[in-house]
Design brief:
single chain, five-stranded parallel β-sheet, Rossmann fold, 4 domains, alpha/beta, 461 residues, elongated, Helicase, Ruva Protein, domain 3
Length: 461
């Protein structure tokens, strides 16, 4: 449980005692104060998670204490108790930053529901604060590392889009280019940063599960629906929802998404009541939605609704020196994780990385660095310690070498050995020329020759 401690501030002993009895059963530690002075001292010394605050106290008004707490930018939600006309006192308290109010005599079940919501609010706010603190300690833009011209343009566009309130955003780009990071950057730079950011991978769920995850369901809506469940849209009210791999959703879900975009309402699965929400929708995909529209696999009206603001994430191969900066960042990260002391990349490794096409983009680069740091020791990562996507690199970078990939029982290792041998034969076993033909470093070539036992095959001096 994130919220463990509740401070009850009320000058009536019976109220404090009865609330303590009930809330202790829920696992909370209860602190008590009968006036503002005591409450201020407890807040300073013990930092409770939630405060239940009476409106009228012996040494002042509860609203005064509420105002002081909010001036300190505290995450602690304050639930006001009031026996006075709610239309005046309660509204004033809410304007000053109270999380909610409960009227006296207290309905304990109502109070428990409010406390549960306050705990969830605190969790989300602390999560945001932790994320923002992490960003202060990195060299990137909300996790998007790089200073190349393409990335500078992306960061500028994200900043503009983030300030647009609820504008729908479509993020496109190859797999592994950082589309989710871009979505997070938009959310955390916007005024919605203190509200939820919900992420749904549409391709990882069946149609039924996607519908239930997004819109929730009523009890009995289907076989396993034993209880009512809120969906992501309902939970994200006021915040942002990222629909990752939007190109994979079914036509049925597309219709419901269109309704949310146009009317800001939806119904839970099995429900009949319209639920209204204020949610910014960010959609991401590595598929060509325009082509899917032409093929009648994606609704044209939904596509235009999603594509209000478009952000294209460039592939890693177009980002130049960002490749080296990202490599060094990941090297530092995995040094800490695996207790290694690598200082950097060797020059031949840097050249290898700059020449590689990176079909898996930043995700592939991160995995390559992780594997190299995990499997080796030393001061520098040399090219022979690096394992890249050989098939993609060799197949796409060597048009002058004949490759037969039609034999179904050929392994990747066999294909690589065959391509290496062809390159060596075409260059009369001149390793420098073969390495240049393959667009890899000479050290990498020698390492792969040794691995495939091709050093002995050399017949020319």
């Amino acid at each position: 449980m994130l919220c463990r401690t509740i401070l009850i501030v009320d000058d009536e002993n019976l109220i404090r005692w009865s609330l303590k009895q009930e809330l202790s059963k829920q696992g909370f530690t209860i602190l008590e104060a009968e006036n503002i002075k005591q409450a201020s001292s407890i807040i300073q010394e013990q930092e409770p998670d939630i405060m239940i605050l009476d409106q009228v106290l012996p040494d002042g008004m509860g609203i005064d204490l509420l105002t002081n707490i909010k001036l300190q930018n505290s995450f602690m939600p304050v639930i006001m108790l009031t026996a006075i006309d709610r239309s005046q006192t309660a509204v004033q308290a809410m304007k000053l930053g109270a999380f909610d109010y409960v009227t006296k005599p207290v309905n304990i079940e109502e109070l428990k529901v409010v406390i549960e919501r306050a705990c969830e609010s605190t969790r989300l706010k602390r999560q945001v604060a932790h994320f923002l603190k992490q960003q202060e300690n990195t060299c990137g833009f909300y996790g998007l590392l790089g200073s190349s011209l393409p990335m500078k343009k992306i960061c500028e566009k994200i900043s503009r889009v983030a300030q647009s309130g609820g504008t729908t955003v479509l993020i496109t780009g190859e797999s592994g280019t950082g589309k989710e990071l871009a979505a997070k950057a938009i959310h955390f730079k916007s005024e919605r940063r203190d509200e939820p950011l919900m992420i749904v991978n549409c391709s990882a769920l069946t149609e039924t599960l996607v519908e239930s995850e997004l819109f929730g369901h009523e009890k009995g809506a289907f076989t396993d629906a034993r209880n009512q469940k809120k969906g992501m849209f309902e939970i994200a009210d006021g915040g942002t929802i990222l629909l990752d791999e939007i190109g994979d959703v079914s036509s049925k879900i597309q219709v419901k998404l269109l309704r949310v975009l146009e009317q800001k309402t939806f119904q839970r699965v099995g429900g009949t009541i319209d639920i209204k929400v204020d949610v910014r929708i960010i959609a991401a995909t590595n598929r060509k939605l325009e082509q899917l529209v032409k093929e009648k696999k994606f609704r044209e009206d939904l596509y235009y609704r999603l594509n209000v603001a478009n952000i294209y994430m460039p592939p890693l191969r177009e980002r130049g020196e960002d490749i080296i900066k990202l490599s060094e960042f990941f090297l530092h990260e995995f040094n800490a994780s695996f207790h290694k002391n690598f200082k950097g990349l060797s020059e031949d490794t840097k050249q290898l990385f700059l020449e590689h096409k990176w079909p898996g983009n930043v995700r592939e680069l991160r995995n390559v660095i992780e594997r190299a740091v995990l499997m080796d020791d030393g001061e520098y990562i040399f090219s022979h310690q690096v394992e890249l996507g050989h098939l993609h690199a060799l197949h796409h970078e060597i048009p002058t070498i004949d490759m037969e990939l039609t034999t179904s029982d050929q392994s990747l290792e066999e294909i690589e050995k065959k391509v290496l041998r062809q390159a060596l034969e075409k260059t009369n076993y001149n390793q420098s020329q073969a390495a240049k033909l393959l667009k890899i470093s000479r050290d990498t070539l020698r390492y792969r020759m040794k691995r495939h036992n091709l050093m002995k095959s050399r017949i020319h001096g």
